Amino acid sequence: MAGAAGRIRGRALGRFQPALPVGDLSNLHLKEEKIKPEANGAVVKTNANSEKADEEEKEDRAAQSLLNKLIRSNLVDNTNQVEVLQRDPNSPLYSVKSFEELRLKPQLLQGVYAMGFNRPSKIQENALPLMLAEPPQNLIAQSQSGTGKTAAFVLAMLSQVEPANRYPQCLCLSPTYELALQTGKVIEQMGKFYPELKLAYAVRGNKLERGQKISEHIVIGTPGTVLDWCSKLKFIDPKKIKVFVLDEADVMIATQGHQDQSIRIQRMLPRNCQMLLFSATFEDSVWKFAQKVVPDPNIIKLKREEETLDTIKQYYVLCNNRDEKFQALCNLYGAITIAQAMIFCHTRKTASWLAAELSKEGHQVALLSGEMMVEQRAAVIERFREGKEKVLVTTNVCARGIDVEQVSVVINFDLPVDKDGNPDNETYLHRIGRTGRFGKRGLAVNMVDSKHSMNILNRIQEHFNKKIERLDTDDLDEIEKIAN
Ligand SMILES: Nc1ncnc2c1ncn2[C@@H]1O[C@H](COP(=O)(O)OP(=O)(O)OP(=O)(O)O)[C@@H](O)[C@H]1O
């Protein structure tokens, strides 16, 4: 394949590409001076306005979380260590390397193995001994999505339940109806060999007769309904709850009202109730909330990922406008063989335009867009993973926080910016971090179409202190080896 790139070096690409009859490679390095300052300013302004106007997508963390659960088939590989801050440093609570060491009830051990788990994940290894200790310990735990948090607290709940007592003993809050159902499924699977154990869903639409008392042992639901069931409707006696779990705390607080409702529920629980809070991320707001709902916590945190771009080759291509960016993209495809690429756009509109244009050029393109139902999005990602499509075009908002494994090339058709138009370094890292994983080398190509975006690129470069080079025909041999 390196030969193909070699043949076209310094020549018009159009003649050599079967699927994409496009222009000259010189488009790849248009001179920066070509962008007239006044035109440039105007372009930027219009872009910013129109982008705002058609940026209808709102970050929906609950949908992203659900999507991750739907597309995930196994544990996310994570090499980071966890940090354990024990409330009582004198109490020796060791981590466990096997489920046997936890002395789980036999029917739970059976459930764990029936789910195909051989040994605890990193977060489980550290959290389970704390959660199953006598007396039960409170816990705030943060670990990346997909690392086994749900399974951990489900085991804790199932271990504490006394089936002979026919009333709710464990209460679990989820941010949405769908996420509550997903967690419910894990409870059902893991408790499969514990048939006397019953589960109720406190979600909107699940209507019970007034005056009724619930006999199920575990209640899982959304904050609003759980609050009603505990206070106004009195279906649950909160004073009898032994384990309170607050799942997906980061998603929870992103929803208006959920934080207050969760705190109100927590205030109704007995003092000796075990409080457990889980979150995939740990920004300040989550931490503040966690401290309000979990008194005297033990804390388990996944150590921050080292921001490393060492295995990723980063380039930029200078263009004048959207069409030229498309042209440059086609040129790149014509010049090298790309196994699988993800292309990020700023808006839905650009993403669907680009997907259509690429399809016209004969590419097998998948479009992941915010207007799709979560199930549809999961299907698109699945097909892409299976290699049915080689290019996935998506928007920033839609793809943030979604686990798509290794791709060989990431293209920023638009650079990531925050709502104020400043460089979004975190998103940049997250996007291009999809390539260059597991010791492989990765390739990231940034399309720059104005002085403004050049400025953004420079700031990103400074932030990471890592050179982003201008893509040149001389680089094609090198990048072909990475991209293919
Ligand atoms: N010990 C284990 N061994 C093997 N697979 C596991 C283990 N624990 C969990 N899994 C599997 O890994 C996947 C992710 O686990 P889980 O949903 O518990 O992660 P999570 O951290 O709760 O994710 P989220 O933050 O999205 O809620 C699931 O498919 C689950 O069945």
Automatic annotation (TrEMBL):
<keyword id="KW-0547">Nucleotide-binding</keyword>
<feature type="region of interest" description="Disordered">
    <location>
        <begin position="39"/>
        <end position="61"/>
    </location>
</feature>
<dbReference type="GO" id="GO:0003724">
    <property type="term" value="F:RNA helicase activity"/>
</dbReference>
<dbReference type="GO" id="GO:0005737">
    <property type="term" value="C:cytoplasm"/>
</dbReference>
<dbReference type="GO" id="GO:0016787">
    <property type="term" value="F:hydrolase activity"/>
</dbReference>
<protein>
    <recommendedName>
        <fullName>RNA helicase</fullName>
        <ecNumber>3.6.4.13</ecNumber>
    </recommendedName>
</protein>
<dbReference type="Pfam" id="PF00270">
    <property type="entry name" value="DEAD"/>
</dbReference>
<keyword id="KW-0963">Cytoplasm</keyword>
<dbReference type="GO" id="GO:0005634">
    <property type="term" value="C:nucleus"/>
</dbReference>
<dbReference type="Pfam" id="PF00271">
    <property type="entry name" value="Helicase_C"/>
</dbReference>
<dbReference type="InterPro" id="IPR014014">
    <property type="entry name" value="RNA_helicase_DEAD_Q_motif"/>
</dbReference>
<keyword id="KW-0347">Helicase</keyword>
<dbReference type="InterPro" id="IPR011545">
    <property type="entry name" value="DEAD/DEAH_box_helicase_dom"/>
</dbReference>
<dbReference type="GO" id="GO:0003723">
    <property type="term" value="F:RNA binding"/>
</dbReference>
<keyword id="KW-0067">ATP-binding</keyword>
<dbReference type="GO" id="GO:0005524">
    <property type="term" value="F:ATP binding"/>
</dbReference>
<keyword id="KW-0694">RNA-binding</keyword>
<keyword id="KW-0539">Nucleus</keyword>
<dbReference type="InterPro" id="IPR027417">
    <property type="entry name" value="P-loop_NTPase"/>
</dbReference>
<dbReference type="InterPro" id="IPR014001">
    <property type="entry name" value="Helicase_ATP-bd"/>
</dbReference>
<feature type="domain" description="DEAD-box RNA helicase Q">
    <location>
        <begin position="97"/>
        <end position="125"/>
    </location>
</feature>
<keyword id="KW-0378">Hydrolase</keyword>
<feature type="short sequence motif" description="Q motif">
    <location>
        <begin position="97"/>
        <end position="125"/>
    </location>
</feature>
<dbReference type="InterPro" id="IPR001650">
    <property type="entry name" value="Helicase_C-like"/>
</dbReference>
<feature type="domain" description="Helicase ATP-binding">
    <location>
        <begin position="130"/>
        <end position="300"/>
    </location>
</feature>
<feature type="domain" description="Helicase C-terminal">
    <location>
        <begin position="311"/>
        <end position="479"/>
    </location>
</feature>
